[in-house]
Amino acid sequence: MKKLLTLSMLFAATSLFAQEESTSKFSLSGSVDAYYQTYLTAPDNQGATFGTAFAGKSGFALGMGNLIASYEGEKVGAVLDLVTGPRGAGATFASDIVDGIVNQAYVYWNVSDKTTLTFGRWNTFLGYEVIAPAANFNYSCSYLFSSGPFSHMGLKADFALSDDFSLMLAVTNPWDTNDTSMTGEYAFGAQLGYSGQFLNLYYDSGEHGGLGFEIDYTGGFDVSDAFYLGINAAYNDNDGSGFYGAALYPQLATSDSFSIGLRGEYFAIHGDGDDLPSVFATTLTGSYTIENLIIKPELRLDALTNQDDGQFYGNFIDSDGVGTDSLAAFTLAAIYSF
């Protein structure tokens, strides 16, 4: 009887472990991208660049490799997101573009069906675009996305208030202080969502390179089954200076495998002084999908206002290498997701 009871308890424990194991799920995903870029209005060997993050090389170049491992239990889980390559280094402010870099690393707890707590480093909730190019329609990035934070290190709570409303509250280290805060300061974030429209708020003291205050709207509408209009608008202020701007993302699906989209963006600097620089950037992108591969041909033209020497966030030069107020480029990118 004693042996039988022991075997029964062992069988029961094994069954419970198997049931618990079956509710857990491990997954591995990621992407790899590369591109070719040539400037249409400037020499490729003179250091011309747009004033935005990533994809700043001419000729053939690597974007990034992205590997995401996640483990999801019944109530808790963890995500480890590793990146390498120039885009990954730029997103994490790392100097080494060869070694693996931590883009995201966080644990989470589903406290209830309506509440989730997340602790660690996670990509920003501000802006229309994201770091991973596979999730963006345009390959190059906007000024609004490039000027805000890429990631946050801290604690956030997500609340599903109803089928349509959501709320996120966060306390983090200051802007892009991804590893630790040595100043004793913290930042605060909030996001109110309604049916795919999001109002985002962010605040830090603005000291030690902080962002200050930013309010950001991100959303979009399905105008028809084939036509989508994305919208992003933001205003930033850090002790009387900062930036503001707006971008529209009309996208048309012409078939199951091909779409074409335009990003039209106005971005400006505000603060003390007259005639502060601003830019109007137009980016036309095609997106052709073959299984898990996306091929993106792209034409981009940025035009400066109130700026004479071509120096804004980037380096606008003409065919003679002299500062000018516009820059155009052609880019062909390939992105594989798995």
Structure description:
With 338 residues, the protein is mainly beta. It has one domain (27-337): Beta Barrel (Porin). The chain is 10% helix and 51% strand. It is built from 3 helices and 16 strands. Strands 1-2-3-4-5-6-7-8-9-10-11-12-13-14-15-16 form a 16-stranded antiparallel beta barrel. Strand 14 and strand 15 (293-305) form a beta hairpin. It is globular, with a radius of gyration of 23 Å. It starts with a helix and ends with a strand. 36% of the residues are buried. Keywords: Signal.
Précis, in short:
The protein has 338 residues and is mostly beta strands.
Q: State the shape.
A: globular
Strand fraction band? over 45%
CATH-scheme architecture: Beta Barrel
As for the number of domains, it is 1
* Termini gap: 53 Å
Q: How many DSSP-defined strands?
A: 16
Q: Spell the H/E element sequence.
A: HEEEHEEHEEEEEEEEEEE
Give the strand line-up of the largest sheet.
Answer: 1-2-3-4-5-6-7-8-9-10-11-12-13-14-15-16
Proportion in helices: under 10%
Main beta-sheet strand count, sense and barrel state: 16 strands, antiparallel, barrel
Q: Structural class, from helix and strand content?
A: mainly beta
Q: List low-pLDDT spans.
A: 1-20
Radius of gyration from CA coordinates? 23 Å
What is the average of the pLDDT values?
A: 89
Specify the CATH class.
Answer: Mainly Beta
CATH superfamily: Porin
Protein name: Porin
Pfam family, one: BBP2
Keywords: Signal
